[in-house]
Write a structure and sequence with these properties.
The complex is a heterodimer of chains A (171) and B (598).
Chain A (H helix, E strand, L loop, with lengths): L5 E11 L4 H11 L6 E8 L4 E11 H12 L4 E6 L6 E12 L3 H12 L3 E5 L3 E8 L1 H11 L4 E6 L3 E4 L8
Antiparallel strand pairs in A: 1-3, 1-4, 2-3, 5-7, 5-8, 5-9, 6-7
Chain B lengths: L1 H12 L1 E2 H11 L4 E4 L6 H8 L5 E4 L3 H15 L3 E5 L3 H15 L4 E7 L15 H5 L5 E4 L6 H13 L5 E7 H5 L1 E2 L20 H13 L3 E5 L1 H5 L2 H14 L3 E3 L14 E4 L6 H9 L2 E5 L5 H4 L10 E6 L13 E4 L2 H14 L6 H16 L14 H15 L3 E5 L3 H9 L8 E2 L10 H11 L4 E7 L10 H6 L5 E6 L4 H10 L15 H7 L3 E5 L2 H13 L4 E6 L27 H4 L3 H4 L3
Parallel strand pairs in B: 2-3, 2-4, 4-5, 5-7, 6-7, 9-10, 9-12, 10-11, 12-13, 13-14, 15-16, 15-17, 17-18, 18-20, 19-20
Antiparallel strand pairs in B: 1-8
């Protein structure tokens, strides 16, 4: 085990859908000094009262194993799954990106959006709001290109992830 | 007809929330709760008044209620129960909750809360108790629906005592305590999400046994997990240690799990552990850790900790494994089940034991023992604190009474751990992880409630004792014959020691200025006050203290500048231990990197 090599881990956590669960997870990360690169949460099963948290974090193998063990011992946590270790998986993020500009900039923004498969979901004579879904790097790349073209505002969801194939996480 | 009966039973079963809470406590086997009333919990106090099943002990400060519950829990193996009001009642309890969290003590703490419709309004005595106690507890609950009330109390007890035990808070809004609520019995089904693994993996057990059998220099190191697993775990530990013939050392939290008088016992390990225990840890080739967590007081400098050993770590909490120290054989399970499995496997596994090498290892250990690292010289009239604890131990043993020791935090705590021998588990209560001054007196109180006929002694320092001195009032009210044995050196001794060794003897704010007269203080609290100022008075004072049927404060005026040795200075390795005053210069060479460690 290399002691100082850090890696990025995408961890899915299936939890009880109850008050305070997000605070518990966030408090765990801040209290123990772990990194959060992205964290998303939403209810996924109303009937069984389950929510799913996807957290992207970085650390050494030892730290990431700690994070998983610490998450797993929270009382309302059903399952902790390190998607980045357990095989091929998909990571997606959704972003809404507002670009304000006129003339050639507008044309160029629209052309690039098309190349990136970003959809126009709002438009005025001076602005666009693009919606795009993809891996974080793709969104990063698009935003970089938009910057000189009048990038005004970005809203991103953070990563959600799921394993490829038949393997799945259940309570 | 049957439907009508069911519905009428359901309505008659609806009782005020406060009564439902007490019924759930009773069904959980609760006999005693430690608490302090206030506005938000008045309904529970009213319900308490009208029943006799549960006894309430009125403390003088909410922090003490939690420590008392901890003492009760640690000395009985049961869950300790606390009842405090909202706002300041809850915030005062926080130190005790964190103490219980760090030392894995099962406690259920009921806190009052403002009524649900006022939550978030900054109402009188409102505090965000679940927010504040989230990182201070194993888990916490805010009950917002009467239907959830009984179920939540049952679940809280399950969580507090299962897996790695810990404190659980149930925040109870006042309207929930007044409104009728249904009672439900404790569930017989598994918890939805919290199901800790207790049975060890047999493959790992076998791997561990083979490693231990082939080991030439083995050591067994155990902690509070063995105590928490119940007295049977301690019995199995002794059986395993005797079966294998291996040396055994205990952490501060684990003292009593293995008999101190056993020839295979190396004493406590760690920062103020014995020379033989620490060198055995440093030099071993296989280490078996059961129920301890490689805490920084144990390991010293991590990169120099037991550098040449293969490590086996059995713990109920997977997050304790590979947290600080990388181990080769992780075993997840309850200490009792792990030890039982190890014994079984040891007897059956045909791997030959490296007997000759282990004999040589014992010879080396015996050489280390010859150093007599805990030796001290008591001469002249000034009482050495080590001597005071040693005499207390010997004279206590002569009484033949079942004896429970609690401590505060500091030098006296380490001397108690070094010089008082524990033969059985659950007899030693000390604040290990959090290091809470003010722990010992209320903890001893909780122990005495659980064991009315036992001898309960708080070995204290003159500074620590003042942090919860108000509990002398509780001792008086309930006629609890707790003995407070103060090693009075007029300094916050451990602070003074570190200042001497690491900060150029600049004794910044560590002198206990303007101390009370502890004899008069005892008198004011309806207790007996005794004092020993010279060595020839020591035995008489101890004997008088032990013979007195009520609470006592014994003010033992000891040497003011005594340091606690052996000591592994911060940032040092086990083999860089300071043995006594003549090696103190070793501590003075501690680097800044070492100094940043506490």
């Amino acid at each position: 085990m290399s002691d100082n090599m850090t890696r990025t881990a995408t961890i899915a956590v299936l939890v009880e859908n109850e008050a305070g669960i997000l605070a518990r997870v966030v408090g765990l990360f801040s209290g123990r000094g772990y990194n959060i690169e992205s964290l998303t949460v939403a209810a996924v099963d109303e009937e069984k009262r389950l929510s799913r948290i996807t957290v992207v974090t970085t650390g050494t193998d030892m730290v990431i194993e700690q994070i998983k063990a610490q998450l797993d011992r929270l009382v309302p946590v059903h399952r902790v799954s390190d998607l980045s270790q357990e095989g091929p998986h998909l990571v997606r993020e959704l972003a809404l990106i507002k670009v304000i500009g006129k003339g050639d900039h507008r044309v160029e923004a629209l052309r690039l959006a098309d190349a990136f498969r970003a959809r126009v979901v709002d438009a005025t004579t001076e602005s666009f709001v693009f919606e795009m879904t993809g891996a974080g790097e793709k969104i990063d790349a698009f935003c970089t290109l938009m910057r000189p073209l009048g990038l005004a505002e970005i809203s991103r969801t953070g990563a959600v992830a799921i394993a490829r194939g038949t393997s799945h996480i259940a309570a | 007809m049957s439907a009508a009966i069911t519905s009428s039973t359901a309505t008659t079963d609806q009782r005020p929330g406060a009564e439902v809470v007490l019924r759930a406590l009773k069904d959980q086997g609760v006999e005693v709760i430690f608490g302090y009333p206030g506005g938000a919990v008045l309904p529970i106090y009213d319900a308490l008044f009208q029943q006799n099943a549960i006894r309430h002990i009125l403390v003088r400060h909410e922090q003490a209620a939690v420590h008392a519950a901890e003492g009760y829990a640690r000395s009985t193996g049961k869950v300790g129960v606390v009842l405090v009001t909202s706002g300041p009642g809850a915030t005062n309890a926080v130190t005790g909750l964190v103490d219980a969290l760090m030392d894995s003590i099962p406690v259920v703490c009921l806190t009052g809360q403002v009524p649900t419709h006022l939550i978030g309004n900054d109402a009188f005595q409102e505090a965000d108790t679940t927010g504040i106690t989230r990182p201070a507890t194993k888990h916490n609950y805010l009950v917002k629906r009467s239907d959830d009330l009984a179920k939540t109390v049952h679940e809280a007890f399950y969580v507090a005592r299962s897996g790695r035990p810990g404190p659980v808070v149930i925040d109870l809004p006042k309207d929930i305590l007044i409104k009728p609520a249904p009672y439900v019995a404790a569930p017989t089904t598994e918890h939805r999400s919290y199901r800790p693994v207790t049975a060890p993996d047999p493959a790992r057990i076998q791997e561990a046994v083979r490693l231990l059998k082939r080991s030439e220099r083995p050591v067994i190191y155990t902690g509070g997990g063995v105590i928490n697993a119940g007295p049977e775990a301690s019995r199995l530990l002794a059986e395993f240690v005797h079966l294998t013939g291996m040396p055994c050392t205990n952490t501060l939290m684990g003292l009593g799990a293995f008999p101190a008088s056993d020839p295979q016992f190396l004493g406590m390990l760690g920062m103020h552990g014995t020379y033989e225990a620490n060198l055995a840890m440093h030099g071993c080739d296989v280490m078996l850790n059961v129920g301890a967590r490689f805490d920084d007081r144990i390991t010293g400098r991590l990169d120099a900790f037991s550098p040449n050993s293969k490590k086996i770590h059995a713990d109920i909490d997977p997050s304790s494994i590979n947290k600080n120290v990388e181990v080769q054989v992780p075993i997840i399970g309850d200490a009792r089940q792990v030890l039982a499995a190890l014994i079984e496997c040891w007897k059956q596994d045909p791997t030959p034991v490296a007997k000759t090498e282990q004999l040589a290892w014992w010879k080396l250990i015996d050489e280390w023992r010859e150093k007599k690292c805990l030796a001290y010289v008591q001469e002249g009239s000034i009482i050495k604190p080590q001597h005071a604890v040693r005499r207390l131990y010997e004279l206590t043993r002569e009484t033949g009474r079942d004896t429970f020791i609690s401590t505060e935090v500091g030098q006296h705590q380490m001397w108690a751990a070094q010089y008082f021998g524990f033969e059985k588990p659950n007899r030693w209560m000390t604040s290990g992880g959090l290091g809470t001054m003010g722990y010992g007196l209320p903890a001893a109180m909780g122990v005495q409630i659980a064991h009315p006929d036992a001898l309960c002694i708080d070995i204290a320092g003159e500074a620590s004792i003042l942090m919860n001195i108000q509990e002398m009032g509780t001792l008086a009210q309930y006629r609890l014959p707790v003995k407070v044995f103060i090693l009075n050196n007029e300094y916050m001794g451990m602070v003074r020691q570190w200042q001497e060794l690491l900060h150029g003897s600049r004794y910044s704010e560590s002198y206990s200025e303007a101390l009370p007269d502890f004899v008069k203080l005892a008198d004011a609290f309806h207790a007996k006050g005794l004092r020993a100022t010279s060595a020839d008075q020591l035995d008489d004072v101890i004997k008088e203290m032990l013979a007195h049927p009520g609470p006592v404060i014994a003010d033992i005026c000891v040497a003011k500048d005594e340091n606690c040795f052996p000591m592994i200075p911060s940032g040092a390795a086990h083999n860089e231990m300071i043995m006594g005053p003549d090696q103190e210069q070793n501590a003075r060479s501690v680097t800044d990197e070492g100094k940043v460690l506490v």
